[in-house]
Design brief:
The structure holds 3 protein chains of 3 kinds. Chain A contains 15 helices and 17 strands. By secondary structure, chain A is α+β, with helices and mostly antiparallel strands. Chain A folds into 3 domains: about 300 residues, no CATH class; about 110 residues, no CATH class; about 60 residues, Arc Repressor Mutant, subunit A (Orthogonal Bundle). In chain A, strands 1, 2, 7, 8, 11, 12, 13, 14 and 15 form a 9-stranded mixed sheet that branches. Chain A has a 3-stranded antiparallel sheet with strand order 6-5-16, with no helix packed on it. A two-stranded antiparallel ribbon of chain A has the order 4-17. In chain A, helix 2 runs antiparallel to helix 3, helix 7 crosses helix 9 and helix 12 packs across helix 15. In chain B, about 40% of the residues lie in helices and about 15% in strands. Chain B contains 17 helices and 11 strands. Chain B has an 11-stranded mixed sheet, with helices on both faces. In chain B, helix 2 packs antiparallel against helix 3, helix 10 packs across helix 12 and helix 10 packs across helix 13. Chain C has a domain of about 40 residues. Chain C is about 35% helix and about 10% strand. Classes of the chains: A alpha+beta, B alpha/beta, C alpha+beta. At the B-C interface, helix 10, helix 11, helix 12 and helix 13 of B face helix 1, helix 2 and strand 3 of C.
Chain lengths: ~475, ~475, ~100
């Protein structure tokens, strides 16, 4: 992997990045109450007395949130802690009705793990996971409905979150971006989080510091809160690292601080807070005894684990013959990978992959459709590739057939049959066309014979055109040369 | 016939079953007596209308023969239990006119057994206090007061005073560091703090979650048995509630104490212990010995540290539990605030009383960065040692007998208590260990001081062994022949 | 570990409580008295003692993932000192 180094007239700098990612857990009810997690309802509808922090209300833990966290932990190749504790993180916040957040502090449910990210130059890198814990989300304030008031909606308050903390292993914006895409892919495979950063169901805090290239010191970092797309995360790292370098090179100092990233400018600004104002006074949540998981419970979830992107990618490479790049692209999204496998079964997998990654995805993009809504079914895409492989149609005709499939959703065999698109492989018929073309173009024939041999391609093109594309290009090529060279 | 409001719960139940009077008559009698005795300031809110409806329903059930365990019995409810559609204050200005849209599990259990609720009883603000003087609604007067008004103890001061003055047949209380037992002792009645996890905390305004426990305050041991049976039970809405069956506590009262070993912790007899207290303690031991129990001196070595441990842990939890009273979703909001932090600060400063503010700040401090290990973690470790002391002691005894409080009821506005909060905290010296260890403990009256004020004895049991406490308490009660107000 | 006047102010702010300037000194004295008293705990060596977190050694129960509450915005909002358009209303929060 090519190194990401900030080089200035004064020196070279290395970037150190760690990420903290909040993933909303997919569950029907909230993590500590039985109110719905439904999104987009009227304000304060999906709020129980527990979520509203009413006096005397107590939290009860949602089994599904724990299961989802364990699944995700396994997906991060991480240690599942059989003993974990909930803690209270105390701070006053209008969106947090109890004015403390129930989270995990000293004993998180998931310990160290690692995931592999694929980089654009074909290399890969392991990124360490420090820990993952579960906690409750806050509600939302609406600031733009009234000039002097903020309005609080608690629908989101109490939705389960998984907070994943990485080690400071990233050395470039690209690595951080690749990690986020990989993480998103894993949680989507597992169905533990929908991974939509733009809707806030996956939110990223970015910790950035720099150090002189070659040194091993750790310098103060700045933390940027709630950076809500992969692109912005990469941009935030790039710009924040540059800002650090500039300050250091001008003799300044960086203080550990929290900053807010502004997506419209790509820059961040300091979030002003009094120094002692952030004392969260964590202590074990007395309303919830420790969470203890049995070996059988964890093994049970392990046994139900589905194939994750890395394993699937490896299998696509080794047993289906895909290139690592193609396999990685197809495996990023579980539905894509499953569609591919269905389409490729019994057919030329590499060709199916090529078709998916070019015409097929282009068609979905153009029609703004999810793969689940594709008019072209996996079976039909497989059949189309099979028609090409068996030389029933040419690659060129196949593109036309695909167009029709995209319009009508029809079976390619039926289209080829009905429209008479079958490739002509009868050498007699082809020879007749070639003879006609040679006879009507004596100038080009003599030019060819005088050394302009690349004119053979022109003759092949003419023949295929006259056959309305149905003549097999291989046969045409062979026969054209034979006849011209005679 | 005696005044029907002076009957015990068991007596009233018998009379109701025999149709000697109706629940409506009984409830009306209590409502009248409440009206005539407002000088005690025992009730914060009287709910006469709902009480009368409940009483009518009870009478129908008696007529139909479908009466339940507490059918038609008029109770007072400590105003820390949320009661649906009835104002709940926790004796604080900050909950100003809060009407809960839900019912606490304990009060729901009582309603399900047919109880009638007369109203909400006064207490120390958020149950923080030992004299009921921190209530926003003013102090409660102990019915034993003679020339000058005495405190009823706290924090369940309204409950104890109301039971002693017959302003309800029995009452609910909560106990975080002695808040059932101390007022029961000061008012010459009985009360039990059950094992932590025995009664659901759902719907009870939280003070210190790991210590809070609800229990009954009643005229005698049998009434406590009847009430606790109804109040207790597993509740899946409280994750600290225990799935342990609730026995018929009354049945234990016919038991035998012969063969039981009663432990008397030597650490509870410090130099300078009030000789009256020491004498009653020994007398209680003699009563039990005379009935065949074995008396044994035991040791609870870390007793000395229980108070300091408690006054770290309880304020710490309270500082977090009380953060939610911020003026946004319910209760009092300081008017005219332009900024959110001002709204928080002014609401809370005006809404909480001095003792609550003190404890919130102490709690905040002991949890803050740099002090957590020195105070909070240290106290959690001390809690382990105190808990283990009891577990070791219970290897050699079945029940532990101690005084409930080193003193009797003191005058309202006592200077030494008001000047130095630690002096007030010291009154909890015999009660807080039990909460730290999560154990059940009973207080019952044993006799009067020279000044004619009641002393209480405390019986501490093994976890979930309230039954044995009822057995021993019944014998002590029979022998002490204490005359209630 | 005696606390000073600044700490009193900081603790008050963390608690979102106000201690009037003229009461800071007295509050400090009082807190130091209480904290001194608490420090008698240091007489006991607890290095090898596990903190007690759950008194009954209960293990956390888990609830089935079903929707069984909510849909009660009127009850949720009815005690609010200020509610508008079904939201809780507070003075404008400047982020």
């Amino acid at each position: 992997m090519s190194e990401y180094i900030i080089t200035t007239s004064k020196g070279k700098w290395e970037v150190i990045v760690g990420l903290e990612i909040h993933c909303q857990i997919i569950s029907k009810s909230k993590i500590f109450s039985s109110a719905s997690t439904e999104f987009g309802d009227d304000p304060n509808v999906n709020v129980s007395f527990v979520d509203a922090g009413m006096p005397g209300m107590l939290p009860t833990l949602n089994k599904e949130c724990v299961r989802q966290a364990v699944k995700t932990g396994l997906g991060l190749n991480a240690k599942i802690n059989k003993y974990s504790e909930f803690s209270r993180k105390n701070y006053f916040y209008a969106d947090m009705p109890t004015d403390y957040q129930i989270t995990q502090f000293r004993y998180p449910i998931v310990g160290e793990g690692e995931i592999t990210v694929d980089l654009s130059d074909g290399s890969s890198k392991k990124i360490g996971i420090e820990r993952m814990h579960i906690e409750q989300d806050a509600g939302k304030s609406i600031h733009d409905l009234n000039p002097t008031k903020s309005y609080i909606d608690l629908n989101r308050a109490g939705v389960g979150l998984m907070e994943i903390v990485t080690k400071p292993d990233f050395r470039s914006p690209e690595e951080a971006g690749a990690f986020l895409r990989k993480l998103r892919s894993i949680v989507r495979y597992l169905g533990t989080c929908d991974g939509n950063m733009d809707e806030g169901s996956m939110r990223c805090d970015v910790n950035v510091s720099v150090r002189p290239y070659g040194s091993t010191e750790l310098r103060p970092r700045s933390e940027m809160k709630n950076v809500n797309s992969v692109k912005f995360v990469m941009q935030a790292i790039e710009n924040e690292a540059k800002r650090h370098v500039e300050i250091y090179e001008n003799g300044g100092k960086i203080e550990q601080e929290t900053r807010q990233f502004d997506p419209t400018t790509g820059q961040s600004k300091l979030m002003r807070k009094k120094e002692f104002a952030h004392d969260y006074r964590y202590f074990p949540e007395p309303d919830l005894p420790p969470l203890v998981l049995s070996d059988e419970y964890i093994e049970g979830i392990k046994a139900e684990m589905i194939e994750l992107p890395d394993a699937k990618k490896q299998r696509f490479i080794t047993t289906m013959g895909l290139t690592p790049y193609d396999a990685a692209v197809l495996c990023e999204n579980k539905e894509h990978a499953e569609f591919f496998e269905k389409a490729a079964t019994g057919h030329d997998a590499k060709k199916v992959a090529n078709w998916m990654m070019s015409d097929f995805f282009a068609m979905l993009n153009k029609k703004r459709l999810d793969i689940a809504q594709s008019p072209v079914s996996a079976e039909n895409l497989g059949k189309l590739v099979e028609l090409i492989s068996k030389e029933v149609i040419s690659g060129k005709i196949a593109k036309d057939v695909f167009e029709i499939m995209a319009q009508t959703g029809e079976d390619p065999e039926k289209i080829v049959e009905e429209k008479g698109l079958k490739q002509v492989t009868d050498t007699g018929a082809i020879e007749k066309i070639i003879d006609d073309v040679i006879a009507s173009n004596p100038d080009n024939v003599s030019a060819y014979k005088n050394g302009k041999t690349n004119l053979a391609g022109w003759f092949v093109g003419q023949v295929i055109k006259l056959s309305q594309g149905k003549a097999n290009p291989g046969i045409v090529n062979k026969l054209v040369r034979e006849k011209l060279d005679k | 016939m005696t005044d029907i409001t002076e009957l015990t719960v068991s007596e009233a139940l018998n009379a109701l079953k025999k149709h000697e009077f109706t629940s409506t008559e009984l409830t009306e009698a209590y409502l009248r007596r409440m009206e005539d005795n407002r000088q005690y300031n025992a009730y914060i809110t009287e709910s006469a209308d709902t009480a009368m409806e409940q009483a009518k329903e009870a009478d129908k059930r008696y007529a139909a023969g479908t009466n339940r365990a507490l059918e038609g019995i008029p109770l007072g409810i400590k105003d820390l239990f949320c009661t649906k559609n009835i104002r709940t204050t926790a004796a604080s200005h900050i909950l100003d006119n809060f009407i809960p849209p839900y019912e606490s599990t304990v009060t729901q259990n009582l309603l399900n057994d047919g109880a009638v609720f007369l109203g909400k009883l006064n207490l120390d603000e958020f149950a923080m206090g030992g004299s009921n003087e921190t209530s926003y609604f003013g102090p409660v007067i102990n019915p034993w007061s003679k020339d000058k008004p005495l405190v009823p103890g706290g924090s369940s001061g309204g409950s104890a005073a109301a039971v002693a003055a017959h302003l309800c047949a029995a009452a609910t209380g909560t106990d975080t560091g002695g808040s059932i037992r101390e007022p029961a002792a000061f008012c010459g009645i009985t009360g039990i703090k059950p094992t932590y996890g025995r009664c659901s905390r759902y719907g009870i305004v939280a003070f210190a979650s790991s210590l809070d426990q609800a229990g009954p305050i009643a005229q005698d041991v049998r009434d406590c048995a009847i009430l606790l049976k109804s109040m207790a039970g597993f509740d899946d809405k409280d994750s600290t509630s225990c799935e342990v069956p609730v026995p018929d506590y009354e049945s234990f009262m016919n038991g035998d104490v012969a063969g039981l070993t009663i432990g008397m912790p030597k650490e509870y007899r410090p130099e300078g212990l009030n000789p009256e207290v020491a004498a009653y303690w020994d007398k209680a031991a003699e009563y039990l010995k005379a009935r065949g129990a074995k008396i044994k001196e035991i040791s609870l070595p870390h007793t000395k540290y229980a108070l300091a441990t408690y006054y770290v842990l309880a304020p710490a939890e309270a500082s977090s539990n009380l953060a939610r009273y911020d003026g946004i979703r319910y209760g009092f909001r300081a008017p005219g605030q332009q900024h959110l932090d001002d709204l928080y600060i002014n609401t809370r400063t005006q809404g909480f009383g001095a003792e609550v503010r003190r404890r919130i700040m102490i709690g905040t401090y002991v949890l803050s960065a740099g002090y957590y290990d020195a105070y909070f973690l240290k106290a959690q470790k001390m809690r382990r040692l105190i808990h283990d002391d009891f577990m070791n002691a219970f290897k050699e005894c079945d029940v532990i007998l101690t005084p409930t409080s080193p003193i009797t009821a003191f005058p309202i506005g006592d200077e030494s208590m008001l000047q130095n909060p630690i002096n007030m905290y010291l009154n909890d010296v015999f009660t807080v260990s039990v909460n730290l260890a999560g154990l059940p403990a009973f207080s019952l009256p044993i006799g009067l001081s020279a000044e004619g004020l009641p002393y209480g004895m405390q019986l501490i049991g093994k976890p979930f062994d309230e039954g044995t406490l009822f057995n021993v308490a019944a014998k002590l009660e029979a022998d002490a022949k204490f005359e209630r107000k | 570990m005696a606390i000073d006047n600044l700490t009193v102010k900081q603790i008050a702010f963390l608690s979102r409580l106000k201690v009037e300037d003229e009461k800071v000194e007295a509050t400090k004295e009082e807190f130091n008295k209480i904290l001194n008293w608490i420090e008698e705990l240091n007489e006991v060596d607890t290095d090898k003692v596990e903190p007690l977190i759950s008194v009954n050694d209960t293990v956390l129960r888990m609830r089935e993932d079903t929707v069984a509450s909510g849909n009660c915005k009127d009850e949720v909002l009815k005690n609010a000192p200020a509610a508008e358009y079904d939201y809780f209303a507070v003075p404008k929060v400047v982020e």
